[in-house]
Design a protein that fits this description.
Length: about 230
Amino acid sequence: MFGSGIRGTLLPALRRCFWIPLCAVVSLAHAGDPAGRFDQWFAVQTNLQSWSADFTQTRSLKVLAQPLVATGKVWVTTPGLFRWELGQPAQTIALRQPNQLLIIYPRLKRAEKYALSAAPTGPLKDALALMDATLPRDRATMEERFRLLSAAETNSLLQMTLQPRSASARKFISEILIAFRTNDFAIAVTELKFADGSSLRNDFTNTVLNQPIAPELFEVKLAPDFTVVEPMRQ
């Protein structure tokens, strides 16, 4: 079991942001592909090098009568890099680099740095491992991490409900819902359902596939007056 210090830092931060993304993962063994759509989707993923989109994020918490809604922008590229900006102008930025996750709060002039290799064994480490599956290449790779609970095609969307195979990861994320458009196979919706009953949903629009993304988007340029902390080292 991960310690209370980790629970009080990175886990709320991941819920507070958008993470996974996670955004495009699936396990399909024995699923009976609806109209061959899954095979077509994986064919597209083989050639997918990058994507970007606008999104509307809805966070539902048990303690709130109404969900929290915000808008933002996301960029994803190989190998497993992403940048999420929540709010306009950005109030929170999540930046996935090769070996770390940065969560930046521009208005507070604060940044939190999480070394991915430093996470203790357990639910947190297994949940973070799912971040490496943002751009799937084949079914076998995804089958290692997820099982498909259900799949249905409606209104030109193929919607899948997934579950992490790791029992430890399920202590953090109970289910992942993903929907993609059947006309261009771009991601339309992702939703994370957490073990505590909360959820986080992203609805994507204006998706752009395989267009060059400026490398500096995935670099960190913090002003000297920013406070940088490493919660997992405290």
